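Morning, I've got a small favour to ask if you have a moment. I'm working through a protein record and want to make sense of it properly. The fold is given in discrete form, as structure tokens running alongside the sequence. Can you walk me through what the tokens say about the fold? Thanks so much in advance, here it is:
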Amino acid sequence: MLAASALLVTAGCSSGAGGPSAPSADASPSRTAAQTSPAAEATPPAKGTVEVVRTVAEGLDTPWGLAPLPEGGLLVASRDAGTITRVDTGTGRKTELGEVPGVSAAGEGGLLGLALSPDYASDRMVYAYVTSASDNRVLRMIYDPARPAGDQLGAPDTVFKGIPKGMIHNGGRIAFGPDRLLYVGTGETGDRGLAQDKKSLGGKILRLTPEGDPAPGNPFPDSAVYSYGHRNVQGLAWDSRQRLFASEFGQDTWDELNAIEPGADYGWPTAEGSSGDARFRDPIAQWHTDDASPSGVAYAQGSIWTAGLKGQRLWRVPLKGTAASADPQAFLKGEYGRLRTVVAAGGDRLWVTTSNTDGRGDPKKGDDRILELKVS
């Protein structure tokens, strides 16, 4: 019997458009028979564990995007202040890099997701998803730590623009995939029809080159759209077999964790949660909206981990191929308030940010903070 607070569902369709699995500029990291063979993969136990190792940093203002630096430290985006801050993960010391110009922070918009260039070691480029006065867009800036604090960001270059904006449902998560291409989660801004309109950039997952062009091999010719029928995508992560998973806010009934296939329709606004309708992909896990509001996701120890905002907890979804192998398991329920972002920190560690200063939480002393977790 499935728990009332977290229902598991199997994928609604087993086939889909897809290319070779090897990461390259002209191929999608989609599923193949070899990749999805359960016998070829170790299935994690149904029940896992979470240990809060320490609080890494405190006193953060509306943290949203989080990007681990290869040289050590974390970059954190402040949604409302429009600033990027480097956190020393050893001492918790915070150094402001600078303010990103042109950020229009209102409602759920502002300075949102962060991602490092796949060539960061040589180009020092930081990508950011930003709500401007007219739209949501992706910028990139050079980060120069040799410059004085507060002046370490170069002038931003607009990589991609024209994503619809609103007071709600701005999406905002960006991540470079194993194919070195940029994936962008967007929202439908409350205009439900945008999710099914393949010509609109709202309610989609987009796939771009680092320069902002539609990626070669995308499912729709000359289009950045990779998947559609989404309400508000705020989490993107790949497993060890380069398969993409995304979290999605529901309306009133079901939040979702989806296994993403190129060109697939995830059903919104016709379907919320599992519908069994062959036209749509059903989620691999779903939650009542009071229990999740899933934002960031990460992959570690054979499971997808997703941070819950309204649910104020961290969810673990163990995987078997691109399906869940057991009921979702909740941790940290109500202990730290709203959880926004979760990022793999290597091995059995995760970084998790709280989101209690975003206008919908109940800030306590020290909020907002970054936690280091040990998971299994």
Q: What stands out?
A: The first helix runs from residue 120 to 123. The chain has a mean pLDDT of 91. The radius of gyration is 19 Å. The first strand starts at residue 6 and ends at 8.
